Amino acid sequence: MSVPPHPAARRATSMPRSAIREIMTLAAGRPEVIHLEVGDPDLDTPTHVSAALGAAALSGATHYAPNAGLAGLRTAIAARVASRTGQPVAAERIVVTAGAVNALFASLLAVLDPGDEVLLPDPGWPNYESIAHLAGATCRHYPMPAARGFLPDVAEIRALVGPRTRALLLNTPGNPTGAVFPAPLMAAIAALAQETGLHLVSDEIYEDIVFEGTHASIGAYDVADRSFLISGFSKSYAMTGWRLGWVVCPPGLAPVVAGLLEPVISCAPTMVQMAGEAALAGPQESVAEMAALFRRRRDVVAEVLGQSPLLPVLPHGAFYAFLDIGGSGLGSLDFARAALAETAVAVVPGISFGPASDRFVRVALTVPEATLREGLARLKGMVERRAAG
Predict the structure, then answer these.
(1) Would you say 384 and 309 are in contact if contact means Cβ atoms under 8 Å apart?
(2) In angstroms, rounded to a whole number, what is the distance separating the alpha carbons of residues 38 and 20?
(3) Fewer CB within 10 A of the terminal residue: the chain, N end or C end?
């Protein structure tokens, strides 16, 4: 008689999973559903970028690239970051990755040992916690309540720092809230890192989608020795499926991060990297046009929900709104299930984004304006009916 196989690894099976996938599965195959759950721009990649990919493939760029990425792309990224932050950036600090999530994974693994602590935002993208779990780290959440515009308080973060705290993760503009951290807040966070020795892992993938104010990058502050600045092509150039991102590492840690790519992806695809270089070097009008499109859709959210409790904070960036559904009397997962069943609108439960976010749901502004308006009106009607009943 054969011996049964051992069960799957506990670290894999106990990894926190997002409820986003449950809602996507429930909504799949239903043509009548309005999909406000998917954070994927409904735009095509600029044609000159796609053309560059084809040309690269035909030219023979079908072999491995260095782990850290092609020299030309790393140089182009360094120049872009330096121009935006006002600080010099050496190409040797750049590691090209298979999307920003790959950059987050490698950056956190570079500084976290099992048993270390990492400070994560609540609300915050659920993959942050999944990555920390796979690193064997303990997650502690710092609050970003609606009453503060979904912004953190530096004193509250400082109070969470203990002897095993190694890293603080930031996200601006924010997913799921659309909050944009102002420059004085980023300066205070940089000062906290210098005071405590924390590494800063700054997810800035939505940096080009800002409606009010300006994007303040962690790269503009004197913390290069302890900060990982992460961004990529997915949002700015509508290249989510291309899987191309980057991280600006602290000096000396880029080889560590690049080494962590070797057993996972080896390298980002060579021809995709060459297309990324074309995206940075080519026309940038599409980036501004996309930001303007999402601003118009953000304004639709304000028109439909601005006079109701559902919109406690107007998003200042990214392409999401975090809606307060507390008036419905339902937790966020039950609300998302009911919204799909009763209104044929798919949203993401707030509990996916942190333990303090269960009275919210996220909607993505990645559908045409008329569709967005209809979906929001249905959600508003559902909350109002339940509040009245």
Answers:
(1) no
(2) 8
(3) N
